[in-house]
Amino acid sequence: MSTEQSRTAREARPAPGALLLCRAAPESVAPVARLLREDMLLAAAGGEWSVLVPEGRPWLEGDEPVDRVLNGWATALAVGAPWPVLALWWDADRAGYTLASGFRRPVGYVWLANGTPAGEDEAMHTFAGRLGLDPVLDVQSLDELTRADLVADARARLRGLIAVLTRAGVSLPDGLVPGESADTLQAAVGVQPHIRLIEWWGWRDTLRAELDAVEGGRLGALLPWACGPQARVLALAQIAAGLPVTAWGLRRRSGGWIAAGALLLAHGAVGLAYSSVGPLD
Question: How high does pLDDT run on average in the chain?
């Protein structure tokens, strides 16, 4: 096959893409998501959900696969936050999801391109339990996604997953359909009320913005920078965990896991620095 034919074949393959769903309002998600330092659009996705639409440079311009990047990003966004993060991803060969929640081990599922299930059924049950889905109706619908289906391909499986989540309050903006390219997804969100997360404020201003968002919410007392000895212990644990995670990401040149380590360090720094940062107003 000639070079031109190889390039044409690659271009004909479906483009990889991803979405990140956070069970929190955009105003709560934005300060944390900015620490990923990636070009993203953030929009509301239902009464208590937000959606992040990444530009996709790590997997479109580099060698890192989309699922590895999204696993790192989901973990990064969820550490130290009182809300779970659901990463949906797809490429030419597979599609799947990862659910991250605090320090608990992420849970996920994968389908091959033709829709063949390639995950463990128990993962779906854990997924339903962590999101508080209906243990009968919703779990039955999720179980159907783990069975053979000659019609539904991998991207149809993701759309089926979203259909289940609508009963949990998820409502994606019009035109935002799992399986589309990053450009198509960004265009769909671009016509909706959204926040563009491209600017880097610097650590001081970013941490202050995160503190302001938390202090204004009802969950501030539950987060690691609340007062008390347990909060300080948790902050130190986050820093201790963030260092090896960041080092591992640097060794593997994994942007997603570098971001996870950076966010662990950031959350720990907020907890330790709260008394000095807070009174700056």
Answer: 79
Tell me: do 25 and 144 sit in the same domain. Answer: yes
Q: Exposure pattern of 84-102 as b/e (b: 16+ CB <10 Å)?
A: bbbbbbbbeebbbbbbbbe
* Main-chain phi, psi angles of 97, to 5 degrees: -140, 160
For 7, the token pair is 């390039």
Please tell me the pTM assigned to this model.
Answer: 0.75
More confident residue, 120 or 281: 120
**130 vs 279 pLDDT, higher one:** 130
Euclidean distance between CA atoms 257 and 36, whole angstroms: 10
Across the beta sheet with 40-44, the strand order is: 107-112, 94-100, 85-90, 17-22, 50-54, 40-44, 194-197
Residue 7 pLDDT grade (very low, low, confident, very high; cuts 50, 70, 90): very low
Cβ contact 124:99 at 8 Å: no
Is residue 15 very low, low, confident or very high in pLDDT (cuts 50, 70, 90)?
confident
Domain that holds residue 31: 3-195
Task: With beta carbons less than 8 A apart as the criterion, state whether 155 and 178 touch.
Answer: yes
How many independent structural domains does the chain possess? 2
Residue 58 scores a pLDDT above 90: no
Confirm if 20 and 51 have CB atoms less than 8 A apart.
Answer: yes
Domain boundary among 144, 161, 195: 195
